[in-house]
Amino acid sequence: MESVSEKKEKPLLIECDNLSKSFGRLVAVDQVSFKVHEGEIVGLVGPDGAGKTTLIRMLTSVLPPSGGNAFIDGFSILSDEQKIQDRIGYVSQQFGLYGDLTVMENLHFFGDVFGVENSEKNQRIEELLEFSQLKDFKDFQAEKLSGGMKQKLSLSCALIHRPKVLFLDEPTNGVDPVSRRDFWNILRSLNERGTTVFLSTAYLDEAERCGKIIFLHKGGILACGTLNQLRRSVAGNVVEIKCKTPRIAFLKLRNLFGTDVVKLFGNRIHVFLFASDTPGTIETVEKILTEAGIVDASITSVAPTLEDIFMALMRGKDDDEV
Ligand SMILES: Nc1ncnc2c1ncn2[C@@H]1O[C@H](COP(=O)(O)OP(=O)(O)O)[C@@H](O)[C@H]1O
Ligand SMILES: [Mg+2]
């Protein structure tokens, strides 16, 4: 665990200052501000349409903002596009490789795009092929690779110029679990070697692995911090129920506590009990289940998962606007 004082010594790498983007009347990103220091892994989480891609496209100076500014390694996205391109790698949500080119040809192509000197390019390509375990596939056409391998190649191409910060937009979307795990191992070892990682994801279990989590909702930041900070920010606790008839128990509990606080995860049920809720005690849960004839339930208090936290943060958010 990093201490606060250690964190302070690390230089600021991303500074997002009231960044906004509107498309006509739609506000896709709404006055977003946050800071990222060198060496962090940051997870940008939010449902579809939350504004994740728009935010990343602005930070990578692909898309001009409607308001605010952001600085990468001290350079403004408004005026220092080239300086920013030299410092960042960007794996976009769309397939950015050339399908008809081989793995090797793609790496050479991106090396040239980023102006990597020929003398250095070959060595970097060798390192990246090793690192991404794509060596045996170097003569394969990119379009013939599996989803997981395509992502590793996209990542390698984005790393060819040794960027300080790597931006990845939902890099593991649609990738099988084994490849997802491999991909994460690569990201982690990259981070250990000093690269700062900023990724968006729709998977909350992935976001939990990030040192800092930014939760975006309708273009605005709903919460930002480490998992533990987010845990402390919600007043309440989670009760986990395991029993032989989880679906029946789930329906009973949902009837009493409401759909927004009771979730079924396979054979486990989580009930988020807000500190302010009157019937919110383990005893109440026990009573409801006993009355429903469920006597085999194990009921324990557990630390809230990210899913629980967001459920709590989102509670009533959408209704407020009706
Ligand atoms: N080029 C565009 N023109 C108009 N609306 C857009 C454009 N890009 C994104 N949007 C809208 O902005 C909102 C945020 O989109 P996006 O950033 O893609 O969200 P996410 O990546 O979180 O799914 C959505 O409502 C989307 O429809
Ligand atoms: Mg997106």
TrEMBL record:
GO molecular function, one term: ATP hydrolysis activity
Top-rank taxon, per record: Bacteria
Disulfide bond is among the record's keywords: no
Keyword Amino-acid biosynthesis tagged: no
Matching SUPFAM superfamilies: P-loop containing nucleoside triphosphate hydrolases
Limits of the ABC transporter domain: 14-243
Signal peptide, first to last residue: none
Record key words, sorted: ATP-binding, Nodulation, Nucleotide-binding, Transport
InterPro entries per UniProt: AAA+_ATPase (IPR003593), ABC_transporter-like_ATP-bd (IPR003439), ABC_transporter-like_CS (IPR017871), ABC_transporter_ATP-binding (IPR050763), P-loop_NTPase (IPR027417)
Family of this protein: Belongs to the ABC transporter superfamily.
Protein name per Swiss-Prot or TrEMBL: ABC transporter ATP-binding component
